[in-house]
Amino acid sequence: MKIFVPGRICLFGEHSDWAGSYRRINAELAPGQTIISGTNQGLYAEIKPHPTKLIIRSCLSDGTRKGPVELPMDRDQLLAQAQKGGFFSYAAGVAYQVLTHYRVRGLEIDNYLTDLPIRKGLSSSAAICVLAARAFNRVYDLKMTIRGEMEFAYMGEISTPSRCGRMDQGCAYGDRPIMMTFDGERTDVTEIKVARDMHFVIVDLCAEKDTKEILSRLNHCYPFAENDIQRSVQKYLGRINADIVGQAMEALRKGDAERLGALMTLAQAQFDEHVQPSCPGQLAAPVLHKVLEYPGIQDLILGGKGVGSQGDGSCQFIVKDEEAQNKVVEVIERNLKMPCLKLVLHSGRRVRKAVIPAAGYGTRLFPASKSIKKELFPIIDGDGRIKPVILAIVEEAINSGIEEVCVVVQSEDREIFEDFFGTPPPVEHYNKLSKDNQEYCSYLMELGRRVTLVSQDIQDGFGHAVYCAKEWVNNEPFLLLLGDHLYTSDSEQPCARQLLETYDRVAQNVVGLKKTCGDDVHHFGCVSGAWRERESTLAITEFAEKPNLEYAKKHLQIEGMSDDLFLSVFGIYVLKPKIFEYLEENITHNIREEGEFQLTSCLDRLRKEDGFTGMVVNGRRFDIGIPEAYRQTVIDFRNS
Prior knowledge:
Blueprint: E1 2-12, H1 16-21, E2 32-50, E3 53-59, E4 65-72, H2 75-84, H3 87-101, E5 106-114, H4 124-139, H5 146-157, E6 178-183, E7 186-191, E8 198-204, H6 211-219, H7 228-254, H8 257-274, H9 280-283, H10 286-292, E9 301-306, E10 314-319, H11 322-336, E11 340-345, E12 353-357, H12 368-371, E13 378-380, E14 386-388, H13 389-399, E15 404-409, H14 414-422, H15 427-430, H16 435-448, E16 451-455, H17 462-467, H18 470-473, E17 478-481, E18 485-489, H19 495-506, E19 509-517, E20 526-533, E21 537-544, H20 549-555, E22 565-575, H21 579-588, H22 600-610, E23 612-616, E24 619-623, H23 627-638
Parallel strand pairs: 3-5, 12-15, 12-17, 15-16, 19-23
Antiparallel strand pairs: 1-2, 2-5, 2-6, 3-4, 6-7, 8-10, 8-11, 9-10, 13-14, 17-22, 18-24, 19-22, 20-21, 20-22, 21-23
């Protein structure tokens, strides 16, 4: 399976994580508090079990490949590797901790893509540790929560020469901003819902700082202050920081970017007054202050401060909007020659759930569909493994980062799906399986624990099938995949992941699109619209359900595309829960199309009232809904 772990940036409260841990010695100290968020960049990896070894391959942010490093799953050898330091030490440290607490075998981690800059205050080492902890958790079904993954990542990292604080592994929570409270050995996490999009710019100052010296000097101020400088450090990392973090949390919840900017500027001023004297050689940070005060961006920013351990490492700005964000990046990169990263905290919630309607009869596949559900028709994947169609679709969702999957089925078919996803073969059959298939059986059972079945008692159209998942979705944005389509990506990212990342970027409903010739448009839903990014994303202006060629040529032409090419629906959507309101209205008032409750008209209403982005998927779709298409899918999907 494939997993992604972002870097993390500390918006407020740096150093207060380790400072708060001293409360186990000095109860007079205030708890530490931070606000962090995942970045848009991170580590991408493919993971699979190995019988005896930890095998790690890495990809640096410049594309350089390192490894593989192979280590036996032996505690002493893993700890020895961890203590050497460096990239591979982090995964070894986590493996050492997991092996100490669980009965596991080995693991292969192929970090095939990294777009997170190293050593820029974005906690790249913690991302590696979380990646390793998450890999063990998912491959061996260790049933860790996100908090559990975070704890094992922390234990793994402190097994190396790194002396990180407990804040760093907060990247386990992904792109959600969170507040962390550190009280001695206890760490509490509170997720923050942002009222409106917040735009940040992170700047690499291209300078030097000595993080070890900064941490050494500041730690000398604890656990008991012996002079005014030490008391001042404790005051800032305690009461002053807690007050600023509390106000910042409220500003995020209200979507008050101006207030958040003022608090950033205040936090930096207070840090300079109270903390800088403890390590003036490093924390005077002339490059940081030059950038914070740079005249060319003052009318574009709302506030700014240092990042991480402070000093001349990185800085962050909060800006007014996306336009200001682009201008700040342009000015700093052009005039100061410093690379920048963009960060957006979206008001929409992260997509955790996927819905797959699988309750249709498959009339065009009769009589085969009389004896076997079309979603259970066999196909052969790229590894040569025969599997039912529904499994390949569920894997598409899980490999794209989805946590839970809902499959909508007919009541009379529940037992079939429950047996497939929840019941291992009888022991006499299991013992006849190859070792590889026995391991795959365990993987299938683990996958099944993330699948929920919901019944559609009456087959009343695609829109009705989607509506049956309303209660399960529970007012969250969700990924929707068709039950009779398969997908393969032509890039490193799964097709569904491409849509999820577009949703994260635009914070709007998204539909996957595919260029389709005119002779085939009547088989698919199609769209029209105006390009946001040429050949990539589209502001949709119309949905049309299986139009004829005459209608398509008159209404669905796209600028820059040939007269015989159109954009058809790929079969994957990311939808906000508002879609259920429109589906419910149609069902309540019996508003049907061709005798059934359809989705397309509700998508078009969602477009009008909330906006809809189309994204041209870098991949291929395979239809199993008609005999000839299914025959071709069996041939082509194996080779995709």
